[in-house]
Structures are given as structure tokens and as C-alpha cells.
Amino acid sequence: MASNPTPPAEPQDSPDAYVGLDAQGAERLARQRGWSTVRALPPGTIITMEYRVGRLNFEVRDGRVARAWKG
Fold this sequence. Notes:
Blueprint: H1 23-32, E1 37-41, E2 55-61, E3 64-70
Parallel strand pairs: 1-2
Antiparallel strand pairs: 2-3
């Protein structure tokens, strides 16, 4: 029987560090720091609540990151 896969480790990076940055620069920085998926969302976007290892979410208002969270 095959063993369960081990998910890759997430970057040791605080999502709070992206708040206030312009969205394009924040996405570029997140990818440089090792996030495999970066997703920018407008305020109020309806999303599913599944957690994805390696994904960083940004809520973007007026071109700037207003909130950031993992998963």
C-alpha cells in the first residue's frame, strides 16, 4: 500500500507583510518567496473554504493588498 503524500512545506512568510503593497508587486514578491499559488481577489468575492498548502490569497482594493491569508 502506498503511503500518504507529504505536502510541501509552506514558505516561512507572514501574510501580514503583504498588506499595503501594490497587488502586482505583492504577487511577484510572494512567488519569489516560494508561494506556489498566489490569488488576488476583489472585496466580497465568494470563495470556497478548502485549505490549499502553498496558496496565498490577497484581497485587493484600489490596486493594493487590503488583506492576505494562507490557504
